[in-house]
Automatic annotation (TrEMBL):
Catalytic activity: 3-hydroxy-L-kynurenine + H2O = 3-hydroxyanthranilate + L-alanine + H(+); L-kynurenine + H2O = anthranilate + L-alanine + H(+)
GO biological process: 'de novo' NAD+ biosynthetic process from L-tryptophan; anthranilate metabolic process; L-kynurenine catabolic process; L-tryptophan catabolic process to kynurenine; quinolinate biosynthetic process
Name this protein carries in UniProt: Kynureninase
Function of the protein: Catalyzes the cleavage of L-kynurenine (L-Kyn) and L-3-hydroxykynurenine (L-3OHKyn) into anthranilic acid (AA) and 3-hydroxyanthranilic acid (3-OHAA), respectively.
Subunit structure: Homodimer.
Length: 458
């Protein structure tokens, strides 16, 4: 807010003027990045199912202007580079068949694809390239990581998750406990916000670890809570849990590509994330994971216990087919099957865009401004009598997303008005709208427009 206010003074504009949004967009160092994305039109996102081609063809009845897309927390927009790289792989497949595994027109031999992806992904999460792998989708990777890292023994049998964890994470934790012969009622421990509060206090998490840490085998929280948008203090929680002897894994579904992460330096044991939210790899995109280098040695407990397949075998001798597993170096040894090239290609195209933007540093700087601007406009132009923002207002405790709760009588009207106006957000029952301005492709004008639609309908 200090930065926004300083710019308002400098430009002689009021923070609440529409012209302020235009001025912010004009001086945005990342403004050219928006052109790297396919922006759906208003007509395309408001059309009834099946009646729009969805292909970007122009629309005679109007609505050909870009929609206001504030839903990158759920599915990021398509980078043009994603389509280009997928097309190139289809051409390789058509033109070379199996030869493409080794000889490739763009120098991306399929056999080494995972390594290219890992090299571009690692800086986004603050990892060494050999600490990152790509495979499957998120929940499957949660299971594979827990197979390696969840080792109930003696008193230490529990998995700690949030009481309001994403259901898939909840089911994964419960079923892992059951799979290991435990009872989810006692071995899945839930961290719950205080009565009347929406978000978890870091101090409460630390207290819970101090009181019960010796009974917890794995702490598995989310980096950014999907519903409230709260960002957890990952370095502090990681250190406190490890001091109690717990293994610490993070679900980074809503944090990867959103926050500036430093998984290696924080000493995180493992992490998993999907890439179709802030990382824009497309619907059902391939998942990624992190295993800290301290777990890479063949003798490390996680390495002993992991579930393996041929793609985790050293590339140099994989095709000797000896049935003697020789682990690849690092996280690669935790991969199981050969890399699905088409989803990995879309991800690779997207990661090129992150690299061109200069990585998470500049993106996070813009993101903090965009989200502060959204918060300001909601508070000033809609007002706390009509809505409540449950996301923390401290910028260190949130990413791009604000979760806005409306009374039941307003909620349906607001969401319908946004949808009709071509403002794409998402609703979470019973009465929460998640709004996520994404620094790669959103503008200050997008934020302004969204708030004006809400203001008008109320
Ligand atoms: C989006 C999301 C998922 C989705 O899981 P998939 O296995 O990719 O379908 C899981 N957990 C969290 C916390 C999420 O936000």
């Amino acid at each position: 807010m200090d930065t926004l206010e300083a710019i308002a003074r400098e430009t002689g504009l009021g923070l609440d003027d529409a012209a302020f949004a235009a001025a912010m967009d004009a001086r945005d160092p990342l403004r050219a990045m928006r052109d790297e994305f396919a922006l759906p039109t208003v007509a395309q996102v408001t059309a009834d199912g099946g009646s729009s081609s969805g292909s970007g063809s122009s629309d005679e009845a109007g609505g050909s202007e870009p929609c206001t897309y504030l839903c990158g927390n759920s599915l990021g927009l398509m980078p043009l580079a994603a389509r280009r790289v997928v097309d190139e792989e289809m051409d390789m497949w058509a033109g070379r068949g199996v030869v493409g595994h080794h000889r490739h027109a763009q120098g991306r031999a399929w056999i080494a694809y995972r390594t290219r992806v890992a090299e571009l992904m690692a800086p986004l999460v603050g990892a060494q390239a050999d600490e990152v792998g790509v495979m499957n989708t998120l929940t499957v990777n949660v299971h594979l990581m827990l197979a390696a890292f969840y080792r109930p023994q003696g008193r230490r049998t529990r998995i700690l998750i949030e009481a309001r964890a994403f259901p898939s994470d909840h089911y994964a934790a419960e079923s892992q406990v059951r799979w290991h012969g435990g009872d989810p009622a006692s071995d899945v421990m839930l961290a719950t916000p205080r009565p009347g509060e929406d978000t978890l206090r870091t101090d409460d998490v630390l207290q819970l670890l101090a009181d019960h840490g010796d009974t917890i085998a794995v702490v598995m929280l989310s980096g950014v809570q999907y519903y409230t948008g709260q960002a957890f203090d990952m370095p502090r929680i990681t250190a406190a849990a490890q001091a109690q002897g717990c293994v610490v894994g993070w679900d980074l579904a809503h944090a990867a590509g959103n926050l500036d992460l430093a998984l290696h330096d924080w000493g995180v044991d493992f992490a998993c994330w999907c890439t179709y939210k802030y990382i824009n790899s497309g619907p059902g995109g391939i998942g990624a994971f992190f295993v800290h280098s301290r777990h890479h040695d063949a003798g490390a407990a996680a390495a002993e216990r992991r579930l393996t397949g041929w793609w985790g075998h050293r590339a140099e001798t994989r095709f000797e087919m000896t049935n003697r597993f020789e682990p690849a170096v690092g996280a690669a040894a935790f991969e199981v099957s050969n890399t699905p090239i088409l989803p990995a290609a879309a991800l690779l195209g997207s990661l090129e865009v992150f690299a061109r933007a200069g990585g998470m540093g500049p993106l996070r700087a813009k993101s903090e401004l965009l989200t502060a601007y959204l918060e300001h406009l909601l508070n000033e132009r809609v007002g706390p009598k009509r809505m409540r923002i449950i996301t923390p207002s401290d910028p260190t405790q949130r990413g791009a997303q604000l979760s806005v709760v409306f009374s039941e009588s307003y909620f349906a009207r607001v969401f319908a008005a946004l949808s009709a106006a071509g403002v794409v957000c998402d609703e979470r029952k019973p009465n929460c709208i998640r709004i996520a301005p994404v620094p790669l492709y959103n503008t200050y004008a997008d934020v302004w427009r969204c708030v004006e639609v809400i203001r008008d309908v109320l």
